[in-house]
Amino acid sequence: MYAKRINRIQPSATLEMTAKAAELRAQGKDVINLSVGEPDFPTPKNICDAAVYAMENGYTKYTPGSGMLDLRVAVCDKLERDNALHYSPENIIVSCGGKHSLYNACQTLFEKNDEVIIFTPYWVSFPDFISVTGATPVIVKTDPQAQYEPDFDDLEKNITPNTKGIIINSPSNPTGGVWSDLAMQKVINLAQSNNLWLFSDECYEQLVYDTHFKSCASFSDYDKIVTFQSCSKTYSMTGWRIGYIAGHKDLVKGMSRLQGQSTSCPNSIAQYAAIEALSGPQDEIQIMKDAFKRRRDYIVSELNKIEGITCDTPGGAFYVFPDISELLNKKYCGSPLNTPNDLSMALLDEYSIVTVSGESFGSNQNIRLSYATSDKLLEDALNKLSEFVSKID
Ligand code: PLP
């Protein structure tokens, strides 16, 4: 029934787990959802007010396909202010979320016989963005002890005449890893010397806890670096669906052509809200960041107290990716735990804790926990996790 391209796409494991949590809640279960990829804070009031203003004043019509000029100017100002990047509106296209930006950029540049490098553990959507174009995702290893920076021998080995691009994501989903400047510079040098597109997904840029975030494009003026950004995580605007890229103007033109014939334009009201988000007061970001850092420190320390679990401290985002391999090939109350998925499912069935198993991110020894949830729920979840693990033998 389906065209081949649809069979190349897997359902999103994280969205599936979120749906599962909602289903269990509807059955009256007391679910603790540690699978969420969104801040647990409300969208700041000034941003909501800007949307109300837009609705009440008739800004409810189609906008230019690549986003309103005022928003693209606000994006340029934000990139200058936060990232020391100098772009003009012709380098910017606003889409319906960072996911849409990535999807469109892959569609615009990649096709059959191309290879695109991603790093494992990878965000669940990266392989699918690539394979739906007909290109092949090529998976490169990383070092879990060094914030999941690339294994550079493996990276160099995997660059072939067919390689067309590299996608990086620091801070990372699922690991929370933040790459050092040196690792970033090495990847840029390799991309440039091989004339590759370098997509830098920076949607967690504001959630870096131990160092200062530096945008990939600020290291070099190589013009095939494309910066992907989103309002989702920074401003707790996941449902508003606003993301954007900054990059080569010809790439922007190609993506605009595709967007014009698919979504026409991003939502006009959300675009007004995004102008306020990017240009208005930024203090709520720090409040969220402080809460996430506190929770990160708490969850890492609690996880490491549980025998059989080890967890390095991730430098950013709101995920931890503990190694649970010592708990595998054992049994929980008689049921075998052979894979991270078995463990994640047993935790869901027995304790109603929702996690995401590592397989969907390319790992067979980890699970992903999001700490974008209240301190109280986090504490409950860790107590239950500890009890669960104590019953594994
Ligand atoms: N990139 C990464 C690494 C993500 O984790 C996500 C969301 O979970 C996105 C991009 C896309 O976010 P959005 O489409 O809400 O902007």
Attached small molecules: pyridoxal-5'-phosphate
**Mean pLDDT, all residues:** 96
What sequence of helices (H) and strands (E) makes up the elements? HHEHHEHEHEEEHEHEEEHHHEEEHEEEH
Classify the helix fraction into a percent range: 40-55%
Return Rg in Å. Answer: 21 Å
Estimated structural class: alpha/beta
- Largest sheet geometry: 7 strands, mixed
Strand content: 5-15%
Give the oligomer, counting copies of the same chain as homo and different chains as hetero.
Answer: single chain
**Number of contiguous helices:** 13
Form type: globular
Spatial arrangement of strands, main beta sheet: 2-10-9-8-7-3-4
Alpha-carbon distance between the two ends: 46 Å
Quick tags:
three-stranded antiparallel beta sheet, alpha/beta, 393 residues, 13 helices
Explain how this protein is built.
This protein has helices at residues 4-7, 13-26, 45-56, 69-83, 98-109, 125-131, 152-158, 181-193, 249-260, 268-279, 283-305, 340-351, 375-390; strands at residues 32-33, 92-95, 115-119, 136-140, 142-143, 149-150, 163-168, 197-201, 225-230, 243-246, 319-320, 330-332, 335-337, 353-354, 356-357, 367-370. With 393 residues, it is an alpha/beta fold. Helix 3 (45-56) runs antiparallel to helix 10 and helix 4 (69-83) packs parallel to helix 10. The chain is globular. Pyridoxal-5'-phosphate is lined by residues 37, 97-99, 123, 169, 173, 201, 203, 230, 232, 238, 243.
Write the layout of secondary structure elements.
Elements: H1 4-7, H2 13-26, E1 32-33, H3 45-56, H4 69-83, E2 92-95, H5 98-109, E3 115-119, H6 125-131, E4 136-140, E5 142-143, E6 149-150, H7 152-158, E7 163-168, H8 181-193, E8 197-201, E9 225-230, E10 243-246, H9 249-260, H10 268-279, H11 283-305, E11 319-320, E12 330-332, E13 335-337, H12 340-351, E14 353-354, E15 356-357, E16 367-370, H13 375-390
Parallel strand pairs: 1-14, 3-4, 3-7, 7-8, 8-9
Antiparallel strand pairs: 2-10, 5-6, 9-10, 11-16, 12-13, 15-16
Helix pairs in contact: 3-10, 4-10, 5-9, 11-13
The structure holds pyridoxal-5'-phosphate.
The site of pyridoxal-5'-phosphate (PLP) has 13 residues, from α5.
